[in-house]
Amino acid sequence: MTRARRGGASPRARRPFTSGALFANSGQRGRAVIAASLLLLLLSAPRLSQAVEREQHVGLDLGGAMLVSHAPTSTGGALGAHWAYGLNDQFNLLAEATGSLLALKVGTDESHSRPGSLTNVDVGVAYVFDVLQWVPYAGLLVGGYGLAGGSIHGVHVLGGAAFALRLDYRPTRSWAFGISWRQHMMTEPSEYPSFTHLFLRAELTWGW
């Protein structure tokens, strides 16, 4: 009867090294590197987003407007100005004023509801999705709307709100150029179910 050697390795410990084991180890190392990279990216993201905090923005908006009403749909040009301030890493305070020329001449309109121009002033907040060269925003605003001219006698003032989407390109830290869309909802939706703006924008930023 032969006694087993003390301290001898078990058959499992003597398995030969194969290429499969090499690939398995490489895969584990690859997953570890990817996980570490994602963790580093997540940790660095808050520091990147601080670039918009306390920033101030002032700019001009040039584009078009469309008002849908019981009268024929009115379209025309629009000119606006905007200001924004970075409240924190994600949110900007907004203030905007826009004038829209909707109809130079208005025919017979028995409802007296088709304006020749519409002016709106709104304030709100926007969420900033990124702070790299391409910067998307989404915001909500509330304000007042003044409809005048056309078939309206005097000035018709309404309250309302707007949903805003915007995409900016920042070639430098001081300048941004972009496009924005505004969908407005006024307090007489049965008379004015839709009011829309589409703008090209340019703005100066400072105060980082």
Describe this structure in words.
This protein folds into 2 domains: 12-50; 53-206, Porin, CATH 2.40.160. The protein is mostly beta strands. Helix content is 15%, strand content 50%. It has one helix at 19-49; strands at 56-68, 74-86, 91-101, 117-128, 134-148, 155-169, 175-186, 194-206. Strands 1-2-3-4-5-6-7-8 form an 8-stranded antiparallel beta barrel. It contains 1 helix and 8 strands.
Descriptive keywords:
Porin, eight-stranded antiparallel β-barrel, elongated, single chain, 8 strands, 15% helix
Shape: elongated
- Overall mean pLDDT: 82
Beta content: over 45%
CATH architect. name of the largest domain = Beta Barrel
Would you identify the regions where 5 or more consecutive residues have pLDDT less than 50? Answer: 1-13, 19-24, 42-51
End-to-end C-alpha gap: 85 Å
- Classify the fold: give the CATH topology of the largest domain: Porin
Number of helical regions: 1
Which CATH top level class of the largest domain fits?
Mainly Beta
> How many discrete structural domains?
2
Fraction in helix: 10-25%
- Compressed to H and E, one letter per element, the order equals HEEEEEEEE
Q: Helix- and strand-based class?
A: mainly beta
